[in-house]
Amino acid sequence: MSLYYDAVAVISNEERVGGSLKSRIYANKSSKHAPAQIYALVSETTKWSAVLKEVIEKAGILKIEKKLTDVLALLLVHDLILSKRGIAAPQSHALCIAVNRHRSRLNAEFTKLRIRKGYPTLQAFRQSIDASSSASSYDQENEIYPHPRWVRINTLKTSWDKQLKSTFADFEETNVLENVLKASKNQRIFHVDANVENLIALPPLYDTSKMDAYRKSLLILQDKASCFPATLLDPMAHDGDMIDACAAPGNKTTHLAALSSSKDMPSGQKHIFAFERDTKRAETLRKMVAQAGANELVTILGSTDFLQVVPTDDQYSRTTGILLDPSCSGSGIVGRDEEPAFHVPTIPAQSAIQPGHKSKKRKRSRQVEKQRAAESPPVQEESIEEADDETEKRLEALASFQLKLLLHGMKFPDARRIVYSTCSIHVQENEGVVIQALMSEAARSNGWTILPRMQQPPGLQAWSIRGLRSECEQLMASLPHAAGLPSAKEVAEACIRCEKGTAEGTMGFFVCGFSRDPQSVTSTALDTGLNENIDEWDGFSDSE
């Protein structure tokens, strides 16, 4: 029964732990059961909760079984009706007995509801519920597309040709991504991405955990947008080492390692220094790097803050590329703000009204409601304004920290390219940080400028969604010393944006590159008034 208690704790979230449902479950080390088992129970019950709520209320078991809570009832009834194994608890347990004694009534109410909704079989009902889940269905009215399972071929261990002849030998290839987005969870179909090498899309609900290649880390689940930073850094375009300044959990690090590895290049010629100041996240990074087979290429500097690194340290004298993917608001993450609602059953209130007093009681009730309404202050509009103010302050704090990291990266004397990215949709964290960095002393004195679109790798040049030009124009007009910088149009074209819920099947994301021309280093930098000594603030990474 402890499995259900663990699930109740996750759903209730009384400690108000932030992050997605999945991240909360996997971060909780006090659970007695495997995170995957808890996540499966909670996510499946959530999908069915609207149906089960009605079934439980119709059966009336919460009025009879006082030991059952609303959430526990949902979890137990889900497994009673929908799980092949039944309730995962001893049949002698009091709560198991409480639910089982109503088995016939619950099944009858479920069957009546299924038939009333027009589904002849349980399988048809399941398919409908699966298709309507938030991450796997196409909202035609609002043109919101589902999110595919993006799979990166880990070229540190295998190749696309090998996987095509083995793992995907019986799959159908399609040139149209939409065919994958609308495919069923069991349909064996894939789409080869045109922008990122060794990346394919599988149907939104396809279960990769059963694939042998996935279990051996020959395949890595990584959102397409998350593959853009390492692709833009393009490690084969320069011959030095690289830094991943905010490396955990490690997908971008291992992608960078894969792009740095070449049959024509001896092992160890290029090296990646991966920084992660958080001890727990550093352990996750170590595991992912080891599983991907990148240990020889990556040195992990756990519990090390990139901002404390001295740019002129001899250890980093060969560093020519820096990847910066700092903490951010996480507003672009798929599922961050659209987790499905968990519908909880209610117990109908017992009526204490006697037949002869019916109208009088109702009249008194209406009078009380009117009085309460009159006494209630109109706080809704004020609350919205306060929430907006808090969001704005939070974004300002994040953008300040992000800018500080970027300016620090610009001080590494041999660096030739920096890639800055966020999983945010907000201008403050994206174009705003880029433009302030371009106008900074660190950029001007060290010869840094924007990496133009025409110098980006071909796949990213072809990406059509670019930066927000009007916002770039406004930002550059409001800041001093814009003379001599790229135009707002050039900056916007250099920036790459991804939008979640679109036909491209990506999360919300932003990425921009900076390049350095040593010949253009100025002896005297302009003072832009930007404060580079900015306090740090923790936000989210795209894994949370």
Automatic annotation (TrEMBL):
DNA-binding found in the keyword field: no
InterPro entries cross-referenced by the UniProt entry: MeTrfase_RsmB-F_NOP2_cat, MeTrfase_RsmB-F_NOP2_dom, NSUN5_7_fdxn-like, NSUN5_RCM1_N, RCMT, SAM-dependent_MTases_sf
Keywords on record: Methyltransferase, RNA-binding, S-adenosyl-L-methionine, Transferase
Entry superkingdom: Eukaryota
A GO cellular-component term linked to this record: nucleolus
Active site (catalytic residues): 423
Biological process per Gene Ontology, one example term: rRNA base methylation
Region Disordered: start-end pairs: 350-390
Binding locations of S-adenosyl-L-methionine: 246-252, 276, 305, 325
Record protein name field: Putative NOL1/NOP2/sun domain protein
Species of the source: Microthyrium microscopicum
